[in-house]
Amino acid sequence: MEWNEKQRKTAAGSILIGVAAIAITTVVMAAGMGGGPGGGGPGGPGGGNMQMTEKSASIITVKLENPTIGKMERQTEFIGKIEAADTISIYPETNGKIVKLHYDEGDYIKAGDLLMELDTSDLQFALERAEASYASSVASYESSIASANKTLGSDYTSKILNAENSLEKAEQSYRQARLNYKSEIDSEDDNIDSLMERKDKAETAMDELLDEYNHMKGSASQEDLEAKYEEYLKARSDYNNYAEQYSEALDDYDDYKSSVATSKNNAYKDLVKAQQEMELATGDAYQEQKAVTEAQLKSSKLSLESSLLSLESAQRDLDKTKVFTPVSGKITACNVEPYGMANSNTAAFVIKNDDSVQLTFNASSDGAAALNIGDNITVSRGSETYQATITEIETEADASSGLFPIKADLEEGCNLLPGVSVKVAATTAKAENSLMVPIDHVYYDGDQPYVFVYSDGKAHRADLKTGMSNETEIVVEDGITSSSLIITTWHPDLADNVDVLLAEGMQQLVESAASAPGIKPAASAASNPKSEPAKETKIKNSEKELEDKSLQEESEEERSEILYDSMEEEEDPDFGIELPEEPTYPEEPKTKDLSPAYVGNSNAASNAIAKSIIEKSSSGSGLLNKKN
């Protein structure tokens, strides 16, 4: 361990102060003396967890800690009920005579059950006629295909298909060759950049070791000087190795670039050849004949598609004569009778939908004001728990109960049935990203909470504005910052502007707090306040608005677009790449000075002080912290 002149003076002064303090200080160890909330003196409530106390006639030794940043929540429980969310009206899709009614008012049904059937006589005849028309269109289309094959010739068509396939493959090969060229050149550039970065780092490390070596001359021992020089030689060897790799990569760059460019250019030549072959296979005469034939085929195909649509329409009309329920539940109204007429504008059935349920519960005005539409709540019944989201908060209290009804949607997969009672847990107070301190460190002067903070060797009282709290911590809204040094040690003489001494290990915390930015307490939402009364701010039956964002992805053809149509030359333009500079090598040091390091002169007094400092630091007396 080496001590410079400033450290020796500081340490010597600390020893003199420490000796004087020891001579007049009486230490009394006391555990569990209160200073927390409601405390402020010995044995005060909440003070049982304070740090061990040191009572001094002249100076107080204290420990410190910073406030923490976190969140705190308070939950309230309600009793809720699962209810059917809505009712469904069932309308027949077509008009007709009812030939069979399967259910009536008051019946329970399941999703998919057949409710009633209409007369199908006329619709069945229309379906058979559509089937015959479709069969005729199929035969006509098949005849048109046979005529087209005969007119154009299967061999000629095969030749065109082969030319198209060859062109498509050539396009794909050229596209891939361009991508490979860019990817491999980029990869080689990255490799060169990586080698240059390693070379530069090795050069910096070598220069730093050389500077350290030269700086140690005249002050370090011969053994240390030799070790530092060996480190330098090792760093220089590493640098030379990286520099050689970098130089070799530069030498090989042009050859590698030429090789991958050749592959790309060959693919381009194949593409041009395939284009020419495609032009030969598709002359003007062929194009004219092909246009006529394709027009005939298109007309026949459109006729086929039209007959198919007619057939599907006839089938749908027939299917509409059977009315099914899309949901499960109880029929609350049946507005039709057997052999009566069904009308598509009149609801035949009204069903209370059991497949769609919602949660309802009631809250006081304070509870309703603390909740918002969109808040997540927890629903439990027995050992099962589910999540729900508040969708509606009434702005007026129920006349009979005086409570505000609240509705919530349950998460998917919830199997709770209508009529079931559940327990609801909702967050009615919360504080996020807030400063918090342990309750045991907070004192009270009447109704004013405060803590003692450390600054410049003194304890200072800091009055607090506090928010919500739990069993162990309290939220601080104003009065301190995140870098404040809170005194955690209780002492009967601790007061505002009293001199204090830091306990062992606390100086590092003080230095960290000095360099750290002080973050002020965030605005607390502990009481979840509302800017206006609940009756004026709640929105009944609010609707959630969803913003649709469609992400358009580029097609593969767009991502690797072929630009050969606009090329004027056969060779594709090259990618310009700027080569890095050649590496440079530092010169070796001309001399190797291994003389003993210069220690410096010191008189007997300063030597005695330094020896005392070292002995006390090694023995852990607490007067000085040992520095490694």
3D structure, described in words:
The chain is an alpha+beta fold and 628 residues long. It is 40% helix and 23% strand. It contains ten helices and 25 strands. It has helices at residues 5-24, 121-152, 154-216, 222-281, 284-319, 365-369, 507-515, 534-537, 556-559, 604-619, and strands at residues 28-30, 53-55, 60-62, 64-65, 68-84, 87-90, 96-101, 108-109, 114-118, 322-324, 329-334, 341-342, 349-353, 357-363, 376-381, 384-393, 404-410, 421-438, 443-445, 448-455, 458-463, 465-469, 473-478, 486-487, 498-502. Strands 5-14-17-16-15-18 form a six-stranded antiparallel barrel. A hairpin with a 2-residue loop joins β20 (448-455) and β21 (458-463). The radius of gyration is 44 Å and the shape is flat. The termini are close together. Residues 1-56 and 524-628 have low confidence and may be disordered.
Strand order of the largest sheet: 5-14-17-16-15-18
Q: Please tally the helical runs, counting DSSP H or I stretches of 4 or more residues.
A: 10
Question: Portion of residues in helices?
Answer: 25-40%
Shape: flat
| Mean pLDDT over all positions | 75
Segments where pLDDT lies below 50 for 5+ residues?
A: 1-56, 524-628
Entry keywords:
628 residues; five-stranded mixed beta sheet; 10 helices; 25 strands; disordered C terminus
Give the helices and strands, then pairings.
Blueprint: H1 5-24, E1 28-30, E2 53-55, E3 60-62, E4 64-65, E5 68-84, E6 87-90, E7 96-101, E8 108-109, E9 114-118, H2 121-152, H3 154-216, H4 222-281, H5 284-319, E10 322-324, E11 329-334, E12 341-342, E13 349-353, E14 357-363, H6 365-369, E15 376-381, E16 384-393, E17 404-410, E18 421-438, E19 443-445, E20 448-455, E21 458-463, E22 465-469, E23 473-478, E24 486-487, E25 498-502, H7 507-515, H8 534-537, H9 556-559, H10 604-619
Parallel strand pairs: 3-25
Antiparallel strand pairs: 1-2, 4-24, 5-14, 5-18, 6-13, 7-9, 7-12, 8-11, 9-10, 11-13, 14-17, 15-16, 15-18, 16-17, 18-23, 19-20, 20-21, 21-25, 22-23
Helix pairs in contact: 1-10, 2-5, 3-4
